[in-house]
Amino acid sequence: MAPNIDTTALSKSPELSDVLTQQAQAGGYDCLPCRLMGSAVFTGMGIYSWASGTSQLRKRELEILRSKSFYTLGMRKASIWVLSGSLVSLGIYRLYN
């Protein structure tokens, strides 16, 4: 037979500050495989976005230059570098923190 459980204790949600304090005291609640996987995903996304973006820009370079768009080729390259650099940085941050 199942034990008697006080359902009023189950219906109360814990305070966020209490949960965060418990996690901080426990320490190391983020496992190594989780860090490695998260780091690999962010870094991979950064590398893929750089490779994909630069290859697409190379293919469409003449079309972009002819269009006289406000978003010049340099701005587009800079955007790709910023995006991919940010993602790789997040991957490195995820690995160590």
Task: List descriptors.
97 residues; 77% helix
Your description of this structure?
With 97 residues, the chain is mainly α. The protein has a domain at 30-96. It is built from five helices and no strands. The protein has helices at 7-11, 16-26, 32-59, 61-67, 73-96. Helix 3 runs antiparallel to helix 5 (73-96). 3% of the residues are buried. Residues 30-67 form the Distal membrane-arm assembly complex protein 1-like domain.
Oligomer class? single chain
Order of helices and strands: HHHHH
Euclidean distance between termini CA atoms: 45 Å
Q: Which residue ranges are poorly predicted, with pLDDT under 50 across at least 5 consecutive positions?
A: none
Q: Categorize the overall geometry.
A: elongated
How many beta strands in the DSSP annotation? 0
**Percent of sequence in beta strands:** under 5%
Total of DSSP H or I helical runs spanning 4+ residues: 5
Domain Distal membrane-arm assembly complex protein 1-like: 30-67
Protein name: Distal membrane-arm assembly complex protein 1-like domain-containing protein
InterPro entries: DMAC1-like_dom, Mitochondrial_unc_protein
Organism: Baudoinia panamericana (strain UAMH 10762)
Question: In a few lines, what is going on in this structure?
Answer:
This protein has 97 residues and is mainly α.
Task: Give the topology, please.
Layout: H1 7-11, H2 16-26, H3 32-59, H4 61-67, H5 73-96
